[in-house]
Write a structure and sequence with these properties.
Number of domains: 2
Largest sheet: 7 strands, parallel
Length: about 325
């Protein structure tokens, strides 16, 4: 089938594009390269340099006539959304509406929307959060993601647009940039490889950092493949259900670094500390029982395995070993 992936030059979107193409699908990409990179674009995909809000997107739909839209395009940073809620809403609400309106107009068969389980549940009382846990978004970014989910339900009932929402945990892996919460993996790795001491942000009473659910991007690709034919009208968490503090994450990355010949000095054993930032949550983990039942999906990569492969990617920048 032909699949239009918005944000297909970005970290996660480009990996999903590669997965679709490897499975024999035809892929079209819309990306304005504000955070995505030209080097991430699969040469077998048809690429359009375009903003999500642009009226020119209509021409892409008219020319390409996609069967499926996979909407990864977004403003993805929680701190940035706090700093500039207007820009966040412009991209994540108005840009989304532009794409979904065109999906209805050009008879798209399915719309896959990427939401954020790590944000929409807010400071969840019970964890891991299930899809029926109360949504209490605590940042403009989370609000826009939840708003888009409500719009999807409207378009489903009003126009019969088939959709699935994937609420991601914190995703890491190859091509990640040091932005958004899960960007901490890229930040830690780049700093260790370049010989710089990383910083762990934490609340005063939780010095080892926030608790998160980290999922490897190769597992995310598999979830997006399953969603092509499953999960109609469903909201589905995609994560691991495993609790990991920022400190535990750092120590695991440091272990990978030292196994590969980096950051061997004692000074790297204890990272620098910084205060929690605006929009930071204390704890966020996701239940994946619904993904197992509806999509037949579960993560295959333990944290260290995914981190080790990701570190190999950053080693490709060829920094000198310490």
């Amino acid at each position: 089938m032909k699949i239009l992936v918005t944000g297909g030059a970005g970290f996660i979107g480009s990996n999903v594009v590669d997965g679709y193409i490897d499975e024999g699908h035809e892929v079209v990409i819309i990306d304005n390269l504000s955070t995505g990179k030209a080097e991430n674009i699969n040469k077998k995909a048809n690429f359009y340099l375009m903003d999500l809000c642009s009226k020119e997107c209509s021409k892409v739909f008219e020319i390409e006539k996609p069967d499926v839209v996979n909407h990864h395009g977004a403003q993805m940073s929680v701190p940035a959304s706090v700093d500039d809620p207007m820009f966040d809403a412009n991209v994540n609400v108005l840009g989304f509406l532009n794409i979904i309106e065109l999906s209805v107009k050009f008879s798209v068969k399915k719309f896959i929307f990427i939401s954020s389980g790590g944000a929409v549940y807010g400071e969840a009382g019970d964890t891991p959060s299930t899809e029926t846990s109360p949504a209490t978004p605590l940042s403009p970014y989370a609000i826009t993601k939840l708003t888009a989910e409500y719009y999807l339900n409207f378009y489903y009932h009003q126009y019969g647009l088939n959709y699935t929402v994937l609420r991601y945990a914190n995703i890491f892996g190859q091509r990640q940039t040091p932005h958004a919460e899960a960007g901490v993996v890229a930040i830690f790795m780049e700093k260790l490889i370049s010989g710089t001491l990383p910083v762990i942000y934490s609340f005063p009473d939780e010095p080892d950092g926030m608790i998160r659910d980290y999922c490897y991007v190769k597992d995310i690709v598999r979830a997006n493949l399953s969603t092509l034919t499953k999960g109609t009208g469903q909201v589905i968490n995609i994560g691991t259900s495993v609790e990991t503090t920022t400190g535990e994450l750092y120590r695991t990355i440091l272990e990978c670094a030292r196994e590969k010949g980096y950051a061997k000095e004692d000074r790297f054993s204890v990272p620098a500390k910084g205060p929690a930032r605006p929009g930071d949550l204390r704890k966020s983990t996701l239940s994946i029982s619904k993904a197992e039942t509806v999509l037949g999906w579960r993560p295959l990569y333990p944290l260290k395995s995914g981190l080790s492969e990701t570190f190999d990617f950053y080693m490709g920048k060829q920094y000198p070993k310490s």
